[in-house]
Design brief:
The protein is an alpha+beta fold and about 160 residues long. It is about 30% helix and about 30% strand.
Length: about 160
Amino acid sequence: MSDCITGAFIIFEGQYVNGDIIILDDFRGTVRNIGVRTTTIEDAGGNLKIVNNSDIRNFQNRSRNRSVAACEVSVAYDTDLKKMDRVIAEGLPLMYEAHKDLYQKEPVFLGVTALADSGVNLKFIVDVREEDVFKAQRQLTRDIWALFMEKGIEIPFPQVVVHQG
């Protein structure tokens, strides 16, 4: 009985609808069916989770607000920061133009996030539709890598320096 009552509230309140992407516990997927007793959610791999409506207590509806894809890239410690800033300022609008179907706005450079062992970590974000968040994250990372390679900005890799006494 509680499944039916909860199902009625879900439907009438519009907490989520078919096609919304939600996260329920550790399961992220698209709502495929809202019944009076159960809700069916499908993940990216086609796996279905069927949940009794009364068991749906805490969830996130990821389709209601903007979504952000993020990537973090390192540059070498000896990078010319003025050159890097110029390259980024010129490159981000081009990335947006090339991927308007994926990016809702121009990517944004947030700045330095860490002084890591092998380099300086930089963070970039871009607004996207929730259904594209992982695809956009991969594309943004590729775009930043390609831009830096083209412009001669070194992306370091872990190295060990041994000093002989």
